[in-house]
Amino acid sequence: MTDLTPMGALGTAGPAAARHGALTLTEDCAITLLSLALRDETSTLADLPLPGPGAYARSGVLAAFWTGPGQWMVESRDAAAARAAIAALPGARMTEQSDGWVVIRIRSEAGAPPLRALTEKLVNLPAETLAPGRATRCQLHHLNCLVTRPAETELCVMTLRSAALSLWHALEATARRLPAAAAT
After folding, report:
1. Helix-strand-coil split of the chain, %, nearest 5
2. What is the spatial distance between Cα 30 and Cα 77, in angstroms, rounded to a whole number?
């Protein structure tokens, strides 16, 4: 029988990680991503009100952000709980997305300034678009990405799994080039 070793999108046996100044980049291999489609945009997923355009919301083990009219991406570390919560919504349609995306979390040990400096180099967006509790779809480097800001000191960047190495390179190279004052 063949022994298979699970690998992350970046080709490592465990999550890839790198640290540059105050920023730590980590591939999040443990996250479950589910796309959700509903006719009723005012629904609540378990105890999580589904956010509107540009918003990111978290409650308990679930988080969600709006991806289009009547559509959200749901994140969870508990796949069974996420599926059960979605199944409880009348008329909900769900598609497993976890294997199609790479998720890279960027954390700052020095507050928001290093994340702001990083995003200023990567995307041409107003700062409030990537404020805590916000989410957006944008072009980063040459990639179509979903970017969420779960917290003041955390940024999450997602792109198609097939572009994982390109995204990692863009994020790591930009973080490495940040001036020392911005990185700490």
Report:
1. 25, 40, 35
2. 6
